Every structure is written in structure tokens, then in C-alpha cells.
């Protein structure tokens, strides 16, 4: 991707002329919360009965809270049960093939640990041997996936198919994650070595952070997470990134620690809302909702008023705030699913080039600066 296109795309996020839908049905205010404040979330709330509004909402906002949904209570007890289990138990949940979408992982210096459930092939080998744990975990995963598929279907209305049915017909490599951020996750002796890094894991673990005002330490102007060297303490955190998914569903405990970036480069907190889940679009949505026949990799012209851009977000939890648990469900296509097609000319001949999800995942892991979608390199 050329530097010119990368600059244009970043300008799209920071434009003061943000594209807002005027429809009164949204029942949401367009309020940007300045860094350093703790005002209510600058994100709209959408009722489950109003799912049809979601394409309009996401043309103007980076994410939304879904209320009155049919999901069971988030399985926070199960998250605590697994993530506070003895280390000997966690060791049995590490995938022998070093999978980044199955089993137990940790990033010690970032003070976070997580467990991923993947239902591929009905595999339950990396789950706790506990019937109640397995039942609650699979129920929440399955119902969340169905909910996210319903959201995807809102983009396939009136004969317009943005997300191919074959993408939604199987589970792809959809996963559910139990995540714990805590200053007590690992002691000082444990943080010296041995981190297990998964896709999107922090590469800033060696830096220090000021915990006086974590919001002020986040800048998304260049698609990165900046930190201060004013304090000697490490905070539980994950750097700014976008998710490699269609949609991400999040339920979290207080303290929130989640911060988001809107299209004006405004950074604001996105705390948990009672009886609601946070829904964020991922990288895939930019491709599936681009102008038909065009690819965002080629030109900014591929991004229209209806294009859904992925939500850039980060987590920073102050030490004195205790620990934070979250339950996250990632709806992803199959690894071989074609995300976009574009015409390219090779040796004077035009041909169709297909981009599969695995290619995007590989690039995001290997290309420095691609934690955020199409960030400059």
C-alpha cells in the first residue's frame, strides 16, 4: 500500500467533517469526550428490536452498545474460575501446537492472561473438566455467535448482499476469549521471561506507564498506543489495535479500562453498560462494505458513506483499580474465506486477485505498524 493511500485513510478517521446520519431513530448524541475526562460513553445504544439501524449507526460511530438483547448473563464466574486456577491447571490448557486461537495464553509484562475457546471440530480438550463451566461457556459462545450473525444479516437487505452467505454458514475460526487484566496476575519473578504471545499481543511490554491518568496516555493519531516514561510501574494493558473479525462482542467488569478512537481522532472511555454488550466492527467489515467492485487497498474511493471502518481500541487498567475481566466473542470468517477481490494487471494482462482472511492475519502479525487497520508502515 502506498504512503499516499495510508495517509488518506488516516485522514478519514480524523476528519472534522464526520459523516453522521441524521435519522432521529438513532436516538444518540454525537458527543466526543476529550482525553482526560470521565464523561458518559460517546457511543449510541441500540435496542435489540432495532437491529435494522446498525448499518446506519456504524456509518457514523466506531461501535455501539446493544441493549435488551437475548443473551444469558456474561460468564464472568467461569472466567474467574479458569484464570485464577493453579498454574498447574493452566499449563494443561496450553495448545501443544502454539495456536493463537485455542487454549491458555499470557503476556506477563502486560499483566494480562486469557483463555480462548474454539469450537472447531467440537474440540473441548483445552477446557476445564467441569460440567458447569463447559455448559455456561458453550452456551454464551453459541448465543453470541448467533447474535453477531443476525447483525451481519442487517447488511444483506433489499437484495444487497455485503457479507456472503457462505461466510456466515459455518463457524470459521470464531472464538470466545476470557481475559483478565490485573497487577497481581504475575509476580516480579515471573515477569522476567517466558511470555506467550498471541495475535495482537503487546510489543511495548518493556515500556513504563504513568498510572495517574491512563486516558491521557493514549494517542491514536498515528494508529499506535503511546506510553509515558514518568512512572516505574507497569500497568495491565493492551496496545491500540483493531480486531481481525467481522464483529467483536464484549462484556466486561469494572473498572473498564477500555478506550476507543472515533473518526475525529477523539479518544474516550467505553465503560461497561448494565445489561448491554459492546459491539465493535473488525477489519473484515471495511472490505465487505467497500464500494462494490473496489478495494480499500487500491484507493480511498473504495470507502463510501456506507463503509464500516474497524474500531481502534486499547485497554489500560490503573493498578489501584484492581482487576478487570472481560468475555469477548470474535466472529470471523473461515481462514480461506475471500475477503475481497480486485483487478490487477500483471505482465500486461488484467486478472482478478483474491485476498483471503489468512493473508490479512499473516500481514497483521508480520508487518510492523499494522496492529491498526491499514496503519502506515
TrEMBL record:
Keywords: Iron, Metal-binding, Oxidoreductase. Pfam families: 2OG-FeII_Oxy. Residues 16-35 are annotated as: Disordered. One of its GO terms (molecular function) is oxidoreductase activity. It comes from the Eukaryota. Residues 217-333 form the Fe2OG dioxygenase domain. Gene3D superfamilies: B-lactam Antibiotic, Isopenicillin N Synthase, Chain. Residues 18-33 have a biased composition (Basic and acidic residues). Belongs to the iron/ascorbate-dependent oxidoreductase family. This is Fe2OG dioxygenase domain-containing protein. The lineage of its organism: Eukaryota, Fungi, Dikarya, Ascomycota, Pezizomycotina.
Amino acid at each position: 500500500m502506498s504512503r499516499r493511500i495510508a495517509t488518506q485513510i488516516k485522514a478519514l478517521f480524523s476528519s472534522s467533517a464526520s459523516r453522521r446520519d441524521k435519522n432521529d431513530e438513532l436516538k444518540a448524541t454525537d458527543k466526543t469526550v476529550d482525553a482526560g475526562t470521565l464523561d458518559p460513553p460517546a457511543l449510541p445504544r441500540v435496542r435489540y428490536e432495532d437491529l435494522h439501524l446498525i448499518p446506519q449507526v456504524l456509518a457514523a460511530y466506531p461501535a455501539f452498545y446493544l441493549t435488551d438483547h437475548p443473551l444469558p448473563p456474561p460468564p464472568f464466574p467461569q472466567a474467574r474460575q479458569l484464570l485464577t486456577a493453579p498454574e498447574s491447571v493452566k499449563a494443561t490448557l496450553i495448545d501443544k501446537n502454539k495456536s493463537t486461537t485455542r487454549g491458555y495464553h499470557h503476556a506477563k509484562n502486560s499483566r494480562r492472561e486469557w483463555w480462548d475457546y474454539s469450537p472447531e471440530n467440537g474440540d473441548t480438550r483445552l477446557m476445564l473438566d467441569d460440567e458447569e463451566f463447559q455448559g455456561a461457556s458453550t452456551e454464551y459462545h453459541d448465543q453470541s455467535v448467533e447474535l453477531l450473525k443476525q447483525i451481519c444479516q442487517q447488511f444483506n437487505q433489499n437484495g444487497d448482499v455485503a457479507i456472503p452467505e457462505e461466510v456466515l454458514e459455518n463457524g470459521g475460526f470464531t472464538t470466545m476469549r476470557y481475559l483478565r487484566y490485573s497487577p497481581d496476575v504475575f509476580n516480579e519473578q515471573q515477569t522476567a521471561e517466558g511470555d506467550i504471545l498471541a495475535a495482537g499481543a503487546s510489543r511495548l511490554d518493556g515500556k513504563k506507564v504513568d498510572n495517574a491518568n491512563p486516558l491521557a496516555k493514549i494517542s491514536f493519531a498515528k494508529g499506535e498506543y503511546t506510553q509515558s516514561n514518568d512512572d516505574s510501574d507497569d500497568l495491565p494493558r493492551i496496545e491500540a489495535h483493531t480486531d481481525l473479525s467481522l464483529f467483536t462482542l464484549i462484556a466486561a467488569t469494572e473498572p473498564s479500562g477500555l478506550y476507543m478512537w472515533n473518526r475525529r481522532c477523539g479518544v474516550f472511555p467505553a465503560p461497561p453498560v448494565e445489561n448491554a454488550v459492546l459491539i465493535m466492527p473488525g477489519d473484515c467489515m471495511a472490505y465487505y462494505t467497500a464500494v462494490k467492485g473496489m478495494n480499500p487497498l487500491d484507493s480511498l474511493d473504495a470507502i463510501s458513506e456506507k463503509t464500516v471502518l474497524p474500531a481502534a481500541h486499547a485497554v489500560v487498567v490503573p493498578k489501584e483499580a484492581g482487576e478487570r475481566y472481560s468475555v469477548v466473542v470474535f466472529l470471523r470468517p473461515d481462514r480461506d474465506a475471500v475477503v475481497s477481490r480486485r483487478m490487477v494487471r500483471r505482465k500486461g494482462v488484467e486478472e482478478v486477485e483474491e485476498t483471503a482472511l489468512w493473508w490479512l492475519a499473516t500481514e497483521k502479525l508480520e508487518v510492523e505498524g499494522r496492529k491498526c487497520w491499514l496503519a502506515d508502515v
